[in-house]
Each structure stands twice: as C-alpha cells, then as structure tokens.
Amino acid sequence: MRLTGAQALIKSLEMQGVETVFGLPGGAILPVYDPLLESPIRHILVRHEQGAGHAAEGFAQATGRPGVAIVTSGPAATNIVTAVADAYVDSIPIVVITGQVATTSIGTDAFQETDTTGITMSVTKHNWLITQARDIPRVIAEAFHVATTGRPGPVVVDFPKDVANDTMEWYWPRRLDLPGYQPTVKGHPKMIEQAAAMIASASRPVIYAGGGLIRAGAAPELGALVERTGIPVVTTLMARGVLPDSNPLCLGMPGMHGNFTAVTALQQSDLVIALGARFDDRVTGKVDAFAAKARIIHVDIDPAELGKVRRPDVPIVGDVKSVIPEIVRHLPAQGRDLSGWLAQLDAWREQYPYSYEPPLPGAPIKPQYVVERLSALAPPDTIAVSGVGQHQMWASQYFRFESPNTWINSGGLGTMGFAVPAAIGAKAGRPRSTVWAIDGDGCFQMTAQELVTATAERIPIKVAILNNGYLGMVRQWQEMFYEERYSEVFLSPDLPDYVKWAEAMGAVGFRVDQVSDVDPVIEKANQIDDRPVVIDFRVDTFEKVYPMVPAGAPNDDIVLPPHQLKGR
Amino acid sequence: MAERSSNLVPIGSIRPHTGGRHHILSVLVENRAGVLARVSLLFSRRGYNIYSLAVAPTDDERFSRLTIVVDVETVPLEQITKQLHKLINVIKITEIDPADALEYECMLATINAEAGARAKVMELVEIFHGEIIDVSLDRLTVVFALSPEKLDDVEAFLAEFGLIELQRTGRIALSKLPKPTRRPKKG
C-alpha cells in the first residue's frame, strides 16, 4: 500500500491508538491536515499553539495516555515550546508534531523556518527530524515509546513539508531498535531487601510521595504499602490525590506552602521513603537542613534523580509500580510500633491545621473559602486544574483530593496560563468528569482565548477566577520581602470585565462578590453542561498563602499564619 | 623567549589545572546527525565545562566514540554521566582512570624557523618524534602525536621560536585495562 508521508503520519497516529489531537494548521503542516479529514481522530482546533500543548498535557494527566499536539513550523513551533518545557519538568508524556519547511529549504532561513529540534533539544526527552517518508512509522512508534516508558516526558517530531508530500510503502515496525534506551523497571533485589529492613526498624518514618507515583499509576501499590506499614504519607504538589485526603495517614502537602504537620514530619523523621519524588527545592527548602536526622530510601525510575540533590542511603532504580510490591513482600511480619509518632503528628495536625481568619461581615470573600466550597460542592470524580500562583497553592491546600489524576497543575516550570487549556484537555479526555479550572486573574488573562475553543468544540469546562486584582504571589513576596514596595503587580479587579469577556467567548459568566452568593452560583455552574462557565470571584486582595517557608530557608523556619502564631 | 608573532592567539594548555579532578569519559554514541550537539548541549545546560572533546566514527559505522575530558569533582561527574546516559543516542559511557589511561593528542604547528633557528627546530622535532610536513623559506610546519602533557612541553619549546599558527585535536584515550567501550553483545 503506497501512502503519502502525511497519510502515513496520520495512520501511524491511529496505530498508536490516538483518538484526540490538539492543533492549529499552517503552511508547512498543511499536507497533514488533508488526510485528517478522513481519519476517525478528533482534532480540536485551538486558538494559540501554547494552548494545544497545555491541552495535550491536561489530556495526558487526566487519562494517563499520551497527549498529542500538531502545529505548523516556525512561530507555531516556538509557541508550543513553553508547553513542551512544562511537560518536561513534570514528566508528562506528550507527542508534539511540528511542521517544518521542505528539507531542501532547511538552513536557508526560509519563510517560517526555525530550528525546532535545536530549540527543543534541552526541553524534550528526545526529538526527531524526519528526513525521508519511509522513516515515518518507525519514528512515530519510537516517539510514543520514548514518551510513555521509563520516566515519561515530551517528545517532538519535526516533519518537513516535502516529506509529507512524498510517498512511501506502508509498514508498521515490528520491533524498535533503540540500543541506548533501556529503562530499568525492576528494582535491585539487594536494595529492596535493605529498604524493607530499614522500613521495619524506623521509628519516625515518613513516605514522601511524588508525582512519579501518579505517572506510574502506582496509587494502589502505595495504598497497599501504607495499609501494611501504617506509615504516614506526605503528598507533594504533584502527587495530591495519590493517597486519599480522607485517609488518616495522609498528611497532605509538604514544602514551601505545605502544612505544618507535613513539613515538620519530614524534618523530624528518622526515615524518608521517597517514591517517585525528586527532592525539588520547593519541597526541601535549604537542602542541608532538610530532614537532617533521616536516612533516605529513594525509589525512582530515572537513575539521575538518585543522588542529584540528596544522597540516598538506599537507592533503588526502578518503576515504583513494581518496586513497592517487592518492598512489601520483604517486610517482616511485625514492624515497629509507630503509635507514639502518629500521636505526635495528630497533635500537630490538631494545633496547626490549614486555617485562615474568617472575614468580618461585609468584607471581601476569602479565596480559601471559595476553594473549600468548590471542593465541597464538586460532583464525584471532579478534576481540579490550576494555573500558577496563590490560587494554585490555595487549591492544593483546601481542595480535597480523593483519587489520583484529579489534580492537574504546572509544578516544576510554574507556567502561568496553564489552567484553561489544560482543563480543556482534561475534559476532552474525560468528558464525564466535571472539570474545574481554579485560576488567578493574572493567569486567566494569559490563555483565556482558549475558552473560544472550549465553546466551539463543546467542551464545557468551568473556570473559577480567584480575582484579587493582583499578580498575587508576586504581591505577597513584595509585601513580605520588599517592604511592601509593590512594583508592577496591580492588575485591577474590574479590567477586564470577566463576565462580559466570558459571554463574548460563548461561555456563561457570573460575578460573585457576596459570601452568600458563593454556594448558589457554584451550584448553578455545576448544573450547566452545554457550555463553559466562568465565575469571577472577587476575593480579598490582602490574603496571603500560609504557611510559608521563605525561598532558600530551612524548613524549620516555617512561617505560620499570624493568628496561629499567638500562643505558640 | 622570542616574541610571539602578533597574529598568534595563545591557546594555553588543555591540561586541567587542578590535580585529582580530571576525568576522561569514553562515550559510545549512535552515529547520527545531531548527537554531538545533544552531548555538548547537555554539558552547557548543566553548567559544566568540557576541557577537551574528540569524536570519530568507530570500526562499526553505526557508532561513534567521543572522548571527553572534564574537570569536576566526583559527585557532579556522577550526575553528568547519569544525565548523559539519559540521552537516547548514548549507548555506553566508560570512565577511563587517568592512572590507567593511554592518552594521545595531535598537534599541527607552523613555526618561525629562519636560517639561524632551523637546525634547532629540526632537532626538537626529532627528539619528540614529530614530523616536518611543510617547509618554506622562513617557516616549518610540524606535526606531533604525543601524550597531552608532552604536547604541552613541545608547545612551550616551539613558542621560543615564535608560533605562527597552532592547532590541537583534543585528546583520545584508551584504558590499559580490558574495559572496551563497545556495545555489549546480547545473549
């Protein structure tokens, strides 16, 4: 069967089981958009290529399957680089196809030419420039394999126009020849034995659960380990939901804006069991002072993570999904009694929960309250997506997560504007789930045009803007560390008019500025299922995210909210 | 010491300046376009400097071998090699212990060799087993293949006469121990 390169590309995507792609056509990718008309693949037309990338990420995070984006060359390719870099840091499997000028024009500064493989080399797991049509099925098969196995990540396939127009004899590769790519999945038996012994003898152990557990689909394995050992768990920003918040052993989020108990449990522990976590500086604070008395077991599929920040006592390279059951298998029948340790944690939890001061009558709504109500009124299986900033931290603190893949955000790169397009991707992947984007006013303005995509493609996401009229997190830092010298952080709560903006994009718009309206409007929004909804929550400008460990400070210097400091 | 000619850019020694931190990595990679860029980008992205890098295809045309000399503490080196391993095109990385290393490097140099100096230059070339490959009225172009340290010495001697142009290749190395950086055979 002879196919054009473009047909071969689409067929290769079909062979990979791709059902949905996010994209925007243009000159160099034009040939690929033609056979798409005959394909069962659903194409979702975004309004900006960054949106295509984040939507692919949201799709991947919500479904566990790779997200796919197709864009053209030059500016389209550079527009999607932010999303590619975002996926790289958070280990999200996405496959990005970029159009490229004809191979005969590469290197001539042709119209809409950029060196896409060169630009994306340091923010992809791997990338390819296809130079002949017969390579297409092989490269696409390799691309999906690399993106989804080992430590997942983004890949880019750069696809020149003449290759798309050329013809090839169709085949599908039976096996892949990637001699330099053999991820280690099974943990080393000796190390696993050592880990089990260390776990059995620890008196103040903590499991440090990272986003790798979510990527590996290892929530059940983690649950089994916790049930067997009774060891408490901190769930990082990327791992929220991997253990249900309702589990008494779930301590919640550690780190810069983590809760007192999770942060202090790590600091006071004698054994940290890091599973799919990378000792990010937002978790460790000052590295030398992080969990200084603890021995470390570190399980990660990426060998480069072991010892990158903190040298583990027991390093295990492997997939957490297969390593955790092996560790459990080697645990002695009787572990140590942890009741003293757990009682201490409970006391801390009692004394220092997440908390904020309730507003005085007539005062603006507290953003934390909005998140609490969104969470309380959310239908089962709701997915929460956030942008980056104060609203992200409040969402991770006050939303209750009961299952994995229900919390999607930009952790490592901290990409503002992530929420709206990622929510579209999540909803496209899991249409039966309610998807709430909890966004900031600054973030929303970066990618709000994708609401047009949501309306046009009938992807009814819901957006809650915590509108405090500021770039809130920057404002908080200027308040705390720059003597309240507020430089270029004021956005205005009224400009733009978010309700009109939402309506202009075909969405339903609401404004809430009374506490009494919070519940009724959220309930109304939850019932709308035929178009996107945007709620402009006018929230307290002066609210800060607490607790907080200042950047670079030791975690022992955790700053509690002022009302909790009294009596400490 | 004779004046260096004005167009000469001193290149200095590639001998890493501190003892004990000098590491030689022998890296077997797939022989594909862009692999060298990926490797060198990884070093710059992670903030490490390459002292010397030599690359050539191997006897198996599917693979090339890079010899990379870096000057770092052992801990960052471990991170470098782990990150290098993550590159899809990297097959195998071996660190060659400098104590067991056979290291070689080539140098081409054009030197001022007017009538008075010519005999001395020729004597030097003979002592260091070099070869004169081009001769003109007042210049000689010579080639040497030596250990990098010896080459440093030769370079210093030649500078006495006035270097006009000089080019070094970067070092290549093999271990005296039987630890070849070949792709392991399956099975």
Q: Can you give a write-up of this model?
A:
- Chain A contains 24 helices and 20 strands.
- Chain A is an alpha/beta fold.
- In chain A, the strands form 4 sheets. Chain A has a 6-stranded parallel β-sheet, with helices on both faces. A 6-stranded parallel β-sheet of chain A has the order 11-10-9-12-13-14, with helices on both faces. In chain A, strands 16-15-17-18-20-19 form a 6-stranded parallel β-sheet, with helices on both faces.
- The N and C termini of chain A lie far apart (76 Å).
- Chain B is an alpha+beta fold and 187 residues long.
- In chain B, strands 5, 6, 7, 8 and 9 form a 5-stranded antiparallel β-sheet that branches. Chain B has a 4-stranded antiparallel β-sheet with strand order 2-3-1-4, with helices on one face.
- In chain B, a hairpin with a 5-residue loop joins strand 2 and strand 3 (63-71).
- The relative contact order of chain B is 0.23.
- The model of chain B is unreliable at 1-14 (pLDDT under 50).
- The chains are: A alpha/beta (568), B alpha+beta (187).
- In helices, the fraction of residues of chain B equals 25-40%
- Given helix and strand content, the structural type of chain B is alpha+beta
* Mean of residue pLDDT values of chain B: 84
CA-based gyration radius of chain B = 19 Å
Total helices of chain A: the number is 24
Oligomer: heterodimer
Gyration radius from CA atoms of chain A, angstroms:
24 Å
Task: Determine the number of helices of chain B (DSSP H or I, runs of at least 4 residues).
Answer: 4
The structural class of chain A is: alpha/beta
DSSP strand tally of chain A: 20
Shape of chain A: globular
**SS elements, strand count of chain B:** 9
Beta-strand content of chain B: 35-45%
Overall spatial form of chain B: elongated
Largest interface: A-B, 18 and 22 residues
Could you tell me the mean pLDDT of chain A? Answer: 97
